[in-house]
Each structure stands twice: as structure tokens, then as C-alpha cells.
Amino acid sequence: MERTTARDRNGLVVLGYEECLELLGEQVIGRIGFVDAGSPVIVPVNYVLDGATVVFRSPAGAKLDTADRGRPLALEIDGHDADTRTGWSVLVTGTTEPIDDADEVARFDRELDAWALGDRADVELVRIRPDRVTGRLLDAPAPVRAP
Amino acid sequence: VKAPPRPGDLVEIGPTECLDLLASAPYVRIAFVVDDGPTVLPINLVLHAGGVYFRTAAGSKLGSAAASGRVAIEADGGDESTRVAWSVVIHGTVSILTDPTIEEELHALPDEPWALPDSRSFWVRVDVDRISGRRIVRP
After folding, report:
1. Which of A49, A32, A37, A23 has its CA nearest to residue A118?
2. Are B54 and B114 in contact (CB under 8 A)?
3. What's the maximum distance between 2 C-alpha atoms anywhere in chain B?
4. Contact B124, B66 (CB under 8 A)
5. Alpha carbon distance A31, A46 (integer Å)
6. Cβ–Cβ under 8 Å, residues A70 and A96
7. Inter-CA distances, A107 with A23, A25, A50, A104, A115, Å
8. Quick check: A144 pLDDT over 70?
9. Dist. CA A48–CA A59, nearest whole Å
10. What are φ and ψ of residue A78, in 5° steps?
11. Dihedral over Cα of A132, A133, A138, A139: its sign
12. Is the CB of residue A67 less than 8 Å from the CB of residue A29?
């Protein structure tokens, strides 16, 4: 994997699209963010990468209408190493798409990890069609502050 | 005497323990609204003297949203050996911290992994109005 070396204004390494997809393919738990009545909502979910899209289980009571199409949605994943004080995060922003096809529902039910923060029977499947996939890597400890 | 949690059980976590879990998390994620859309970023959260704070950079998306507005902040964790996963979410309103005494106290705390360069950053206070948490035992 070729590592990009571009940095953002805060000194974090900017991850490329392929690196972000690779990280998305390695993880199974993320957090979705959406807006409900003007306020942000964040919920941990199990997800699976499907091509360039992300499919997740929407927990019951998450106030996310799974039949919605085109609703703005974000999914964030991250990782952290306490010893080296390094970390990374990937953010997918896009819009929702319902999954109606019975074969697809059956496939994602098999593929999605069972570690859901909720009952399996209470969840519905939603696809995120990404507009943007961005990632950051914190590759060195934060600079020591001057006294 | 409560029965031990069984696989699939979903157990609510009380507000005090929620705050303890938030305080012990190495970092958390913050959701906020930019141009009517949701954004989620990892941040370091500081619980200090009954208040909830984080640092952000001027001119950043979060920094721009931090002048006022609603946020949701989440932490989660899991223990593979006990097969217990938990998550905590707080909702609140943010404002730029203007109390110089608290600011000084916060500055005296050690830096955390997602901390920002000091020169362009400022402290934000979260006025929390809702705390919820739950634990699930993995089947």
C-alpha cells in the first residue's frame, strides 16, 4: 500500500481513497451520524463494505427511517494504539439507500458481524452511497506544549 | 440480587457510570451538523470539575460549529474475554469556553493523542442535557 504523505492544517496525514477503503474493509464496527430534527445523532453499528458502498444494521429506535432514500448520513471508523499514541480515522459521508432485495438482505445478514449493540431482530439494513470518503492518520505524538 | 447478564442481554448504564466510562475512554467521537449534514470526528474529551470540555482548532469544521450548536458525543468499547460491549452517548450544546480559570486548569492537563497544535486551538464547553449508555453481552 502506497502511503500518502500529504498533511492537513492540523498536521495529520491525509489518507488516500484506497487506504480508506482498505481500513473500511478491515473493520466491522463504526458509528453512524445523522441529523434528527436539527440535532446530530450518533449510534454505533455493525457494518460491511460492499464495493464502494457501506451497508449497516440500523438499530431500532435510532430514529433513522430506513425506507428513506437520499438522507445525508456519515459513518466513522477509527483505531488507536495507546503505546505509540498513534491513531487513524475514516469518515464516509453520503446518502442512504434502502435495501429491499430479499437476496441482498439474506447476504448482508450473513456477512454482518453478530456483535451488534442491539437485538438482531430489531435491526434493518441500510446502504450508504458515499459522496466523500476521507481519512486521517495521527502518526506521531502531539507536540509538547510550551509552558 | 440481580442475575448475571446473559448473551443478547441489553443493560442500561446509569448516568454516573456513563460519565466514568466517557472519562476513561482514550478518545471519543463527536457528531455535529455542517451545512445541514452530519459529520463525525474523533476528539479527546476532558471531564473536569463537573464540566465536559474539548479542544478544537479555529477555522476547522468543528471549530466553526463550536461557537454554538448541538453535538452528540459517543464512546464505546468491548472486552473480548467477557464478550461484553458497551456504548455511551451524551447530547448537549457547545459554546466557546470563556472562563480563564477553567481554561488555565485545562491547559495544565496532559496532552492526549488527538490533541491539536496549541497555537490555533481553543477550548469548548459542552452543556450536557442527555446521557445514555448500554451494555450488551455478545452471543
Report:
1. A32
2. no
3. 53
4. yes
5. 8
6. yes
7. 21, 16, 11, 5, 17
8. no
9. 15
10. -155, 170
11. negative
12. no
Nearest CA in chain B to A85: B113
Where are any strands of DSSP class E within A37-123? Answer: 39-50, 53-58, 72-81, 86-98
CB pair distance less than 8 Å for A80 and B107: no
H or E segment to which residue B16 belongs: helix B15-24
In b/e form, how buried is each residue of A6-21, taking b as 16+ CB within 10 angstroms? eeeebebbebbeebbb
Q: How far apart are CA B74 and CA A113, in angstroms?
A: 21
What is the number of alpha carbons within 13 Å of residue A111 lying toward its C-beta? 17
Report CB contact under 8 Å: A38, B89. no
Tell me what the mean pLDDT of segment B108-123 comes to: 71
Partners of A115 on chain B (C-beta within 8 Å) are: 78, 85, 138
CA distance A135 to A4: 11
Tell me the pLDDT tens digit for each residue of B41-79: 999 999 999 999 999 888 888 888 887 799 999 999 887
Residue numbers in A near B137 (CB within 8 A):
none
Chain A nearest-CA residue for B108:
A147
Across the interface, whether the CB atoms of B73 and A72 are under 8 A apart is answered no
> What is chain A's mean pLDDT, rounded?
84
Which of A11, A39, A80 lies closest to B117 in CB terms?
A11
Contact B31 A138 (CB under 8 A): no
Share of chain A above pLDDT 70, in %: 80
Give the helix/strand (H/E) hosting A134: strand A124-138
> Which single residue is written with the C-alpha cell 497555537?
B119
